[in-house]
Amino acid sequence: MKLVDVNNKILSYADLGFIDYKEAWDLQYKIHSSRVRGNVKDHFLLLEHPNTYTLGKTADKSNLIENEEYLKEKNISVYDIDRGGDITYHGPGQIVGYPIINLNDWKQDTHKYLRALEEIIIRVCLEFGLIGKRDPEYTGVWIEDRKIAAIGIKVSRWVTMHGFAFNINTDLSLFNGIIPCGISDKAVTSLSKEINKTVEIDFIKSLILKHFIEVFEYNSIELISKDELLAFELTLTN
């Protein structure tokens, strides 16, 4: 672990690269449990998943419109999970962010937390000249009426889990197997589609991290490698 610019509000950050959904979900739970007990600092994980559909706890299962044959052909895993919201897609070229942070140290307000996650994506879009906006009816970030980022969270004992999915170089055709977020009358988009060129994933991660630190007012970052975090995972529940 490398500690950068030591101060009083520290964020542990890990870039997990490409990681299976279930593996990352299990890791979130272990970090969350340790954060609730005060054994670890706030964590922020950025990563990509293989092709996956996730259904939130209020999801309408009819919004998964493709059959088992399609799922096998496209090698798509499906998980019922405990975040808010309906169904969404995760896959290569999409940056997923999982903040595991204690809102007691920021603001005890889940609505403000959701707006803060949206603000981070809006600021990144603005760096490319795109005007991201909120929709008063739906959580997430939109470019005009096209959804570029989905957000779904869980908060337990004021510690967060799950987070956002930001389409960068995403294969948007894989959203065709679902009704994304249960919204049938709006399209999805990606950063690369909006600016008409492929974008470097690592560069976008650096922008997300920069704005995350600003919005949540961290003073320093503890950088953790994927290998370190996965090894450290073994000690989290001890």
Verbal overview:
By secondary structure, this protein is of the alpha/beta class. The protein has a single domain (2-236), classed as Bira Bifunctional Protein, Domain 2 (BirA Bifunctional Protein, domain 2), CATH 3.30.930.10. It has helices at residues 21-36, 68-73, 110-126, 191-195, 201-216, 226-236; strands at residues 2-4, 10-18, 42-48, 52-55, 77-80, 87-90, 94-100, 132-133, 141-143, 146-156, 159-167, 187-188, 220-224. The strands form two sheets. Strands 1, 2, 3, 7, 8, 9, 10, 11, 12 and 13 form a ten-stranded mixed sheet that branches. It has a three-stranded mixed sheet with strand order 5-4-6, with no helix packed on it. 40% of the residues are buried. Residues 1-6 have low confidence and may be disordered.
> What average pLDDT do the residues reach?
92
**CATH first level:** Alpha Beta
CATH architecture: 2-Layer Sandwich
CATH topology: BirA Bifunctional Protein, domain 2
Domain unit count? 1
Could you describe the largest sheet, including whether it forms a barrel? 10 strands, mixed
List unreliable stretches of 5+ residues. Answer: 1-6
Percent range of helical residues:
25-40%
Number of strands: 13
Number of helical regions: 6
* Quaternary structure annotation: single chain
CATH superfamily placement: Bira Bifunctional Protein, Domain 2
Q: Report Rg.
A: 17 Å
The N- and C-terminal alpha carbons lie at a distance of 20 Å
